[in-house]
């Protein structure tokens, strides 16, 4: 039985496979692929803007337990309202600029701190490839 697999978003260009992608930017050893073309990676400048923020709210399950528990245990169930839940919102903006007229920006949603670290790590790897001899 054969399963259909979608074609890759950015097909390999000769012997240059895609190493990783950040949003809609794909990076190979020698080039940067954006929706409007392919550019050499050497000399590109990468910028990351962290636009994420953290909020703390009362957990929804704690509100439900406090309401239901109030009928059975009265004031002891109100302690569940002290339970806080941390939520992450926002996005990481990645901008790549190059000497051949390349200028592209993409935003990657970040729902946890590890996603922000992953984006930063990939941009650092792209910068290393851009400055490699």
Describe the protein in words.
The model has no long low-confidence stretch (mean pLDDT 84). A hairpin with a 2-residue loop joins strand 1 and strand 2. With 133 residues, this protein is an alpha+beta fold. Strands 1-2-3-4 form a 4-stranded antiparallel sheet, covered by helices on one side. The longest helix is centred in the last third of the chain and has 19 residues. It is rod-shaped and about 70 Å long. The chain has a domain of 84 residues. The protein has 2 helices and 7 strands. The termini are far apart. Helices cover 25% and strands 37% of the residues.
List the helices and strands and how they pair.
Elements: E1 20-22, E2 25-27, E3 31-34, E4 37-40, E5 45-58, H1 60-73, E6 84-97, E7 103-109, H2 113-131
Antiparallel strand pairs: 1-2, 2-3, 3-4, 5-6, 6-7
What is the assembly state of the chains in this entry? Answer: single chain
Unreliable spans are none
* Helical run tally: 2
Structural class: alpha+beta
Helix content: 10-25%
Which series of helices and strands comes N to C?
Answer: EEEEEHEEH
Round the mean pLDDT to the nearest integer and report it.
84
Strand content: 35-45%
What keyword list fits this structure?
single chain; 133 residues; alpha+beta; three-stranded antiparallel sheet; 25% helix
Give a brief rundown of this model:
With 133 residues, this protein is an alpha+beta fold. The protein has two helices and seven strands, in the order E-E-E-E-E-H-E-E-H. The longest helix is centred in the C-terminal third of the chain and has 19 residues, at 113-131.
């Amino acid at each position: 039985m054969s399963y259909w697999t979608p074609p890759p978003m950015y097909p390999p260009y000769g012997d240059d496979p895609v190493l990783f992608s950040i949003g809609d930017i794909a990076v190979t050893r020698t080039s940067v692929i954006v929706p409007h073309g392919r550019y050499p990676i050497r000399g590109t400048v990468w910028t990351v803007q962290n636009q994420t923020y953290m909020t703390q709210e009362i957990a929804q399950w704690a509100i439900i337990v406090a309401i239901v528990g109030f009928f059975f245990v009265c004031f002891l169930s109100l302690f569940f309202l002290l339970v806080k839940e941390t939520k992450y919102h926002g996005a990481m903006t990645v901008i790549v600029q190059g000497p051949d007229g390349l200028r592209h920006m993409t935003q990657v949603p970040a729902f946890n701190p590890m996603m922000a670290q992953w984006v930063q790590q990939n941009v650092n790897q792209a910068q290393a490839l851009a400055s490699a001899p």
